[in-house]
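Hi V.,

You were right to ask for the full record rather than a summary. Here it is.
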Amino acid sequence: MCIDPEKSERSLEIYQKLIAEQQNQIRELEQKLQQERELRRELEAQIGTGTAFRAEGQLIQKIAETIPGLTYIYDLNKQCNIYVNDRSSQILGCTPEEIQHLGSQLFSTIMHPEDLAKVPGNVETLVKYEDHQIFEWEYRIRNARGEWRWLMSRDVIFSRNPDGSPQHLLGYAIDITDCKREARERNQLIASLEKSQEMYRTLIKYYPNGSVFVFDRDLRYSLVDGQGLARAGISKEQLEGKSLQETVPPEDLQLFESKYRAALAGEEHTFEYKYRDLIYSITVVPLKNDREEIFAGMVVSQEITEQKQADLSLQQVKKDLEIKFQKQSAVLKASNQQLREEIIEHWRAEEALRESQQQLELFFSQSLDGFLFMMLDEPIQWDDTVDKEKVLDGVFASEKVTKANDALVAIYGATKEEFMVKH
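Predicted structure:
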């Protein structure tokens, strides 16, 4: 889960701002009440206590109607509210008359039991206060819709009994339910963020052969770790809390800044970067919260020096093989051409031999009167210096005759096959 610390901080600022505004309003009310007290003393001196008290009530009512919170006067002797302004309808869903009708049963009826148990202790503390001191406390009230709402009250002693003990409390209450919820959500976010950061740190710390960097919108590193830092001769302390400009060589600043700002705009980029004798594959991506809002960027750096060297070696081997292949291809092409020529020459020789055999068969198949033909398996001497009859007898006796024409075979009164077997 991605968490936006900026949103959490804004929630805290809103909460603090709201509390500050309410405190300012209370201070203004206290100033008006102080003015009213002075006016009351003047009226008492002029026309008597009864008339002054009525004038005091009218003044308080006018003041109460002008402020956004719930204003009330609580009688400690009767344990009930003797005055509540009209804001009670907005905050509690009850009219001032309904609240006064509940009397001393108000707290037990609408206050949360856990907070009701604290009331006696709060009263015991408050009665020890001076007139100018303000008692502040928070508690839960169930409104007319059955919802539990958080209120914050600021009470001061308004009047005292003849024995000097507090009689009336003047109070001002505001609904802080939303602020409490935002504060709770903020605390949950902070706890979740701390847990996530711890998880991220653990994962990043053991990220093999690389490093991870998280940077904010000011391009300042908020998280740096990974096993690759040591190999590069860098510690996370050198980078965490530092800006990009403080950590990157000037000649590379423009490259990294453009990639970082692109990530904060929602883009992802991967590029190679050489640092000293090491080569890195760097990926820069945006980080988003659960509302898909970009609140930071992340850099994942993976050392690829050995891989690049292996790639270069592989490319060299490939180049060498291509050269060898080209050479072998040329040799093979020449060999193929020579073999082709030899095959063609052999084919031509076979064709010539077949033609010669066909012509020879045709020659021997002809029967020419007076001509005798035969073929021997080896040359013999045949001229006037030899006894030709003896030569022929020797030829026939040695079975050297491989072919004979019909005229020669006819002399012996046999077929060609019989003649060849005999001779």
